[in-house]
Structures are given as structure tokens and as C-alpha cells.
Amino acid sequence: MHTYKIVILSAVFTLFSTITYAQNEDAVNTYTPYTFYGIGDLATPGFAFQRGMGGIGVGLRTNRVINIMNPAALSAQDTLSFMFDFGAEMQNYYLATSTDKTANNSANIDHISMSFPVWKKMAVALSVLPYSNVGYKITQKETDPNILTQAGDITYTNQGEGGLNQFMLSLGYSFGRLSVGGQAAYIFGSIDRYDNVTFNTGSGFANVNSGRLLKASNFGFGLGVQYDMPVGKNNLTFGATWQFKNNMKIDQIDFAYAEGGVGNDTVRYIENPDARLLVPGQLGVGVTFRHDAKWLVGIDYTYRDWTGATFDVPSSKHFQAMPEHIIRGGFEITPNRYDIRYFFKRWSYRGGLYYQKTYLQFDDNRIQSMGLTFGVGIPIGNLNNAVNIAGEIGQRGTINNGMMRERYWKVTLSVSLYDLWFIKQRFE
Hints:
Oligomer: single chain
Number of strands: 18
Radius of gyration: 24 Å
Shape: elongated
């Protein structure tokens, strides 16, 4: 076995252990008050290859990288190949209201994935990647003069951290131009939320600390289909995916205790090992048009109806869950990936954009998100080995009507390795 193959396998076990351990510990992999509800922010789809193109992938079909956004795309993999992809993500958030501003950043391992053929028209992928992230801390001071006169200075703190990961098995099979696929994922992790009231002036009142601790473990399933149609020397690929709704099993602890004042006292402690949290199904459709190995352009649309979803925190009367719509578009240009004189002509240059009408609505104010993406694929060595870098700048929300605006930038770095592992030896 070649040395770099040993390195790949070592990295598989090391990164898998690291990601699994990280998800068993409280961690902040994002920082935005918009993760206050439900299971937080669902993870950005795809790896750096897809994210540089706005996040398209439902209609994307290629044998160069792993595409788990549509399991049917795995059947495009070469029958003697092995592919491996791992990456990390860094994020920076700038939050603002009409009166206040703050900034936060985070970084974490993003994913690890490997794919290999199991038959001449079938391939599978094993992946560990985020499912959702929660990270926020909101601090407010009491301003009512009547309360201040009686109780003194009071601080209200709402804090959440953690998230869910998934270990995913994807399979794709080709019937010629038509390909189908399926996914099964084991979803696991924890989300901790705290709501504290602190009396700062020693008024004799007890501080109240309360919260909900959630541990999730459940299975999720999805299906995908692609139809690849030649158009002259080009290819037009149509794709569709469906993720089934998930009535997620959670182990929940709801607690509250008083601390200080005349003594410590447990106000509430309720364990519910059979709680449920409903995450709705998701429909995705996409189309990609590509010209040989030189360029491609595509667009995706996804829909998820959150109106029937369960939220694990008490909903404000101002909050209402709505159907979610996302449109993504992107392109890739590779001047000449076989050029032996000019290295930069072998690079792949990517760009894209997206618009999201989120499920969050406060009074009559619907939260919307939009952003631009860009990226490059830098070839390393032979075949399809590459370092993929994707950047994203975007905005969610607005400062109008007493709301909060979130501006952010994200960078995703992944290494994609490709090798031929299944060639029979002809000579000893």
C-alpha cells in the first residue's frame, strides 16, 4: 500500500474520532441569536466544491468529487476509484440593532467523507458532518424604574450552545441516463439552553437559573434521483431529492433552581427521556448544464414547511414558524485542466449566490437571508486531487422595525483526494 494511502486511512480514523468527541462536548460552532429556536441553524449543504457555487448540488453530476447533496450523483464515480474529502470551516458574524453592535467568530472541523464503488454501476459514501448548530448569548438589563427601585440592578441572560451531527451512509445506482440513490443518517448530539436572572446589588432576592438540556439520537432518511441528458457535446442534468420528516427522539431535562437570597432551592427538575422534536421533510430540485470539463452552470431550489414543526423552547407570541424557500445558483470555469505549461489554467474558478426566505417570522417581519459565494479548486498531483477553498459573504435580517441584522463571512477549506485502489495486480 502506498504511503499516502496509509495517510488517508489514518486521517479517516483521527478525524472521525475528533468530530465524534467534539459533538459529545458542549461546543459553540456558530454564534447567532437566530439559533434561539428549534434545533438551531441547519448546516450549510455540501462541501467546499459546492459551496463555492452558491451551494448547488441537487442537479450536479461529476466524477471528480463526492456529492452527497444528491445520493444519485454517487453513481457517476469511476468504477476503480476511491475518493476522500475532509474540511474545516471558519465563520465571522457582525450583529447589529438600531442601537447596539457586536462581533463574534468560530471555527471547527466541518466534515469527513469517503466514497468507493461496490459494483460497476453502484457507489457508496460514508460521511460525518454537522446537522445543525446552536450558539448565542443574549444579555439584557432591567429598565423598568419600579422594578429597579424594589429589586435593584437585574441582568437577564439567555444562552445556548451545542448542535447535532450525523453519520451518513449514501448509495447511488445508475440505470444508464437515469440514476437513483438513498441516504440513511444517524443523528446525534446535544443542545443546552440556559435562561438566568441575576440580581447584582445584593437586594436579598435569589438568582434564578433555568434551562433545557437536550440529547438527541435518531435516524433520518432521504432519496434522490438524477437524469443526465446529452445535448450535443454538452450535458444537461436534472435532479430531485426528498428528505423525510424526522420525529426526532430526544432525552430532555427541564430545570430551574434558585441560588442566593435566603438559600438554594430546586424550583423545577423534570426528566423526559421520551420527548419528541419534529423536523419537517424537505424537497429539493435542481438542474445543471455543463460543457465537457471546461465549465458548468446550475440552479437549485429547496422547500421545507416548518409550520408543523416542534420547537423545544417556549415560543414568544411574536414568533411564528413559516414555510422556508431557498434558491441557489452557481457556476464553475476551468480554462484547461490538462494544461502542462500554465498552472493557473488548471485551476477551477467558482462563483454563486443564494436567496433564502427563512421560516422565522416575528409579528409581520419575515427574516430573509442572501449572499454571494466564490471559490477555487487548486489541483495537487495527478488525477482529481485538489484543495478546494470557498468563501461566502451574506446578510440575514434587518435593523428596521426593531429587528436585528446579521452580516457574516465564512471560509470553507477542504482537501479532495482521488486514487485508483481496485486495480488487480498483474505481476508480483
